[in-house]
Fold this protein.
Amino acid sequence: MNDVTDSMWRGSAVDLDAYLTRVGHGGGVAADLSTLRALHTAHVGAIPFDNLDALLGRTAVPLDVDSVQEKIVRQGRGGWCLEQVVLMAAVLDRIGFTFTAFAGRTRIRTGNKFGPALHVALLVELDGERWLHDVSFGAHGLHEPIRLAENARLDGDWSFDLVREPTGEHVLRFLRPEGPAELYGFTTDARYPSDFELLNHFCLTHPRSPFNHRMILQRTRPGVRHLLAGTVLAEIRPGEPTAFRELDDTEALSAPEEIFGITLEPDDIQTLRKTLAGP
């Protein structure tokens, strides 16, 4: 494990045992593909995508490892993409993996290939190959790494592939019965923690941010994936078209805990109730 010198990913700050307990990983860890796959699956199954802090009126979502670890690992909350990547990068750094970060332009639900590159994930180098390791895209995202190669494919209950566009951009696709869904396009230009701070500020404060005006919760579990956007709940099951349901205010308020496993403090529940009620 990487326990001698610190890096920009702050692996030395991670309580690795606490993280492994949080995601339910009971085996050993090493800088190998088996561990990478196991941690990826465990993380997405245990930690939901959660933008609730933005809706609770918090003017900052800190991205330092200590704050992210306190929220996600010790308090048992979820986190949005940038928080989860900060945590995952620190964990991989602590174990001894070699990796870089990149930014992707989300396409699903927008259809826009040229929107801001707000999604961040990791490319892990192992035995001369690179693996796309993305634990924070939520209900449509990968459940284990996929090799970064033209026409790479990940098959199973949830299937994905990677295609390369003439521009050179890679596109990750979720292969659904109703047809492939383009999740995001990306290049492999390296991004750094300082870049995350700028993206975090946009997501939290910009009027065109998709994350600061309605509840967005997502979780992947064996056999079912859930996505709540506002009051519309999407349920995705293997081999079936996505099912949608409109939640009433009571259902929406209880959804964080009952559907996504997020326990909020009583004061936060009251604030969220007022937010859902509107002006």
Observations:
- The helical segments are 16-23, 33-46, 52-55, 65-74, 81-95, 193-205, 249-258, 266-277.
- The chain has a mean pLDDT of 89.
- Residues 37 and 144 are 5 Å apart (CA to CA).
- The chain is about 30% helix and 25% strand.
